[in-house]
Amino acid sequence: MTTAQTRARQGKRLSRAFYRRDPRQVAPDLLNKVLVAADGRRARIVETEAYCGPIDAAAHTYRGRTARNATMFGQPGLLYVYFTYGMHWCCNAVCGQEGEGVAVLLRAAEPLAGLELMRAARPAAKKDRELCSGPARLCQAFGIDRTQDGVDLVASTGGLTIVDDGVPPPDAPVVGQRIGIRHAAEEPWRWYVPGNPNVSRR
Known about the structure:
This protein is 17% helix and 26% strand. It has five helices and nine strands. It has helices spanning 3-10, 16-19, 23-30, 115-121, 135-142, and strands at residues 12-13, 34-37, 42-51, 79-84, 88-95, 102-113, 160-164, 174-176, 190-192. Strands 1, 2, 3, 4, 5, 6, 7, 8 and 9 form a nine-stranded antiparallel sheet that branches. It is globular, with a radius of gyration of 16 Å. Residues 1-8 have low confidence and may be disordered.
């Protein structure tokens, strides 16, 4: 198999234009796309949540720019990584227009490749479906922390990208309220692949 054929089989990187949309459009379209690390770890995204900046009290950017959330105001296609509850990292794909402060949280994924690396990073996982079944678990499984904040998913210069390997988003994703937040929890801005056992919560 040629290098070009191998790349085609692995998938095509998502374009800047893909992310340059409302996060409520991007979030369901990210379902079944594949998060890829340079070391061979791959996982299919099965659950997402949209965060909508100044109209969303749950968004980190609701009250404006800070040193912590600066990446979320960057160009679409960057990876915004933040620390939460004093112990966990979570990652988001920046969306919309530069300066808008909107993003999609990658909540859960289905491991596809590099499982030995994921298991080593998440020794507490008893089953493979627990490796990436939550935003913090996903980051642990991929070794994502603050050093990846600002990585360009489109250029793939920081060892991470998201690709389309030909599997379309579900025709009828499950839509519901976001979880694990205190503000604006009633908004139906969470999507997941129906029936997928890697989803964080049904």
